[in-house]
Amino acid sequence: MATRGHLLLFFILEPFCLLHITPSLAYSLKNCTILYQETRSADVSLDCANRNLETIPDDFPKNAASVQLNNNRLKKITRKDFSKMSQLRRLHLGFNQIDSVYDRSFSDLVFLKTLSMEHNNLNHLTRDMFYGLSNLTLLNLSSNFIQFIHCSAFRHMYRLQTLDLGNNDLQQIVEIQPVLQLPQIQTLKLRCNQFSSFETKELSLNFSSLREIDISGRNLERFSITTPIFPFLQMISLSGCEGNSTLKWDITDKTLLKRVVKLYIADAVLSFIETEKVLKSLYSLSHLRLQHLDEWIRKGLLTTVCKLPALKTLDLSNRLTNFILKFQPCSELTQLYLRESYISKLPKGSLQSLEQLQFLNLSTNRLTNVPFDVRHLSSLEILLVGNNLISELNCEDFLNTTRLMELYLNNNRITKLKRCVLQSLTDLKVLGLSNNLILTVGDTFKKTLFKLEVLDMSHNSIISLESGDFQGLQKLKYLNVTRNSIGKVDDGSFTDLVSLKTLDMRENKLTNLTSNVFQGLFNLTVLDLSHNFIQFMHDSAFRVLTSLETVNFYSNMLQYDHPGLIYYLERGILHNMKHLEYFKAENIYLSAPYSNTFQSNQKLRSLTFTKTDLSELQPELFLPVPNLESLDLSESQLKSLDFLVHANLPALRYLNLAGNELNVINKTVFQSLPSLTFLDLDKNPFTCECSNADFIQWVKSNTQTQVVNAHQYVCSFPVSRRGSLLLDFNFQPCLDDGGFLCFVSSSCLVVLTLLSSFVYHFLRWHLTYTFHLLLAFLYNSRKGRKRDPHQFDAFVSYNVRDEGWVYREMLPVLEGEQGWRLCLHHRDFQPGKPIIENITDAIYGSRKTICVISRSYLQSEWCSREIQMASFRLFDEQKDVLVLLFLENIPAHHLSPYYRMRKLVKKRTYLSWPQAAQHPGVFWQNVQRALQAGGALAENTDLLLGPAGR
């Protein structure tokens, strides 16, 4: 048995003995942060960007699926940097100084999908640089100094679809031939290299699966496709570079580009004649983008453009100030982009012929009104006129655009929206009016926009919402009125918004919420009232919001001379929100929330209480929300985390405790959170002493919880270590010799276990009796010194099952007729005092002790202790202080297990209630004589009935 116990203890304690020898740094990352994912099954994403790293960190979790290493000072990639990271899917190495990648450095990344290495110093791609990347689909090598590509550099990339080689120093088109031979390549970007020409006759291949090509060059003079190697090509992009020469287009056989549907031309890479030549050769073209070609457009290029038989989308981002556009022949056009074109006015007739137009983008221009021709675009469905100088809308502006579904008027100077302006837009679903100067809603929406689902009126100057402002918007699902000056919301303002899901009222001047302020919002799921000045809210303000899932009270209740949010939380404003999942509150008042605050919110998943005094936070607050996954208690004056031990948060994964007053942290706090994966303890005044040794060890060794930026935590105490790093504190001396200590501890535990088992089985009653004799002796000594007078005549010791007899038979006689003062535990024990102390006080505070003995009495632990105390007093004082009264006939052999009772019965006579059943009067006279008796103790006193020595 000893051997088995010793081995068991050894296997239990062995891991702890070895912690200081082989620590795991899997989650206490020095230079990176694992990004928190709300979904448990989400991939591990690692953020190591902007850290001034010169080498790849060696403490990456091997199960990471995404790693951000951009914006550092990395210079090379070696074989060990990403070894055994087979689950990696995305790797970003852009904006570094990488000039060398060792062969097979990525060989373990067999499932990598995306590799970004833009803006580095690579100048050649070797044979085995990308060895092992058989599942890579996107490779970005733009903005390097690549001059040479080995012919076998891409041979393993069977699934590569997109390759960006833009802004490099490639000089010969044959360099990219291995890329064109890849079986799944679709997009190739070659802009701004050193090619002098792009001619397919230089390429020795039959065909390529390429679909999109982006090509340009500082010295590119010729673009020629004379062989059918691009049968699937759909898009060509030609853009200019610094010092670009004029390009010659050489494609005589139009059938070679019969599938090209998209063409992007930026800057004057082609002459006017060449541009027309290109357009005429692409008879399947449906999408055309012309950027920075102001001169060619002024020369009449649109005449050629509008003759393209398949053209549907035209994107003109050019400087067209004071230029009269004419789209007379473009009758088949469905989408037109005129954004960022410096247009101040579109004369009548400019767009009138575009009868099929469905999408028109006029944003970021200098328009002072909606162009006249818009009212004639009867097929228009989406109109963007944002970021202009429009100050007034006329009733005729949208008179005939009855099919319009989305209208964006944001970033203008509109002060008022007349009801007649929107009256004909019966199909409108989205209306953007943000960043204007609107003062009031008024009757703008009354009985007009019956199908409107999204309304954005943020960043205006609205001062109040009145009843009827949104009348008729029964289909509205999203309303945004943030960053206005709304100080009052009348009852009934939202009555008609029965379909509303999201109400965003951030950054206004709300000061109170009346009882019916949210009337009608039965389906509201998201409510944001953050950054207001709310001081009062009616208890019934939220009673109709039974569907709410997200509530944000961030930065409210700042007026401390009025009731804060805590006051209203205690009044039960969340009581009806049984679907609540996200609750956020900052700076909500001076004390912790009431423990029943979330009693009705059992679906709560995310809770934020920040910038609030939570120093008295109780664990009961979290008991009703066992499904809580995210908890933010940052900047809340917390001095201890003991409340988390009893908070019952088995699902908690994210915990933010930054900016509190935590000095010492017990690791058991986090052991009580079995699902915790993300912990932020930044900006706490840590103590670097042995009191934190367990916590430091836990941070370094645990493989589940990421302690964010733990290697940057700084010591605040003691003064001698102030400014040093917490994880640099040497805690080994605190643990002594771990191996020897574990051996000694395990051995002692085995011996103690065996000894405890022996004592429990053979000496249990002797030890219990000795313990109580000692307590009584100490108590008697103390009472003797104090010389306290007796408060009662007798203390009655009885079992609760005999309580009926005590009340029915004993008390009426002894207290009622004979006038004795009796002490009963239920009536005379002092509340709050330890029960053993109450018993001792009762026995020594009474002249005598009456033990009412029955079988239940003998089996009672507390009754046993009472008679032990009384018997000690009997022997100690040598006075007749004990009266034994048997309610039942109990044979002597039944008393054998009760050693003390059997010994007393052998030495003393006793009162027997069953024997006195025929003469109860005599029985109570004998009890009276026993209580009156005093003086020295005499064995076998004849006052009592019953045989001695039974």
TrEMBL record:
The keyword Phosphoprotein does not apply. SMART domains: LRR_SD22 (SM00365), LRR_TYP (SM00369), LRRCT (SM00082), TIR (SM00255). GO terms for biological process: inflammatory response; innate immune response; signal transduction. PROSITE patterns: LRR (PS51450), TIR (PS50104). It is found in: Membrane. The keyword Iron does not apply. It is a single-pass type I membrane protein. Residues 790-931 form the TIR domain. One of its GO terms (cellular component) is plasma membrane. Residues 1-26 form the signal peptide. Keywords: Glycoprotein, Immunity, Inflammatory response, Innate immunity, Leucine-rich repeat, Membrane, Receptor, Repeat, Signal, Transmembrane, Transmembrane helix. GO terms for molecular function: signaling receptor activity. PANTHER family: LOW QUALITY PROTEIN: TOLL-LIKE RECEPTOR 13-RELATED, TOLL-LIKE RECEPTOR. Belongs to the Toll-like receptor family. This is Toll-like receptor 22.
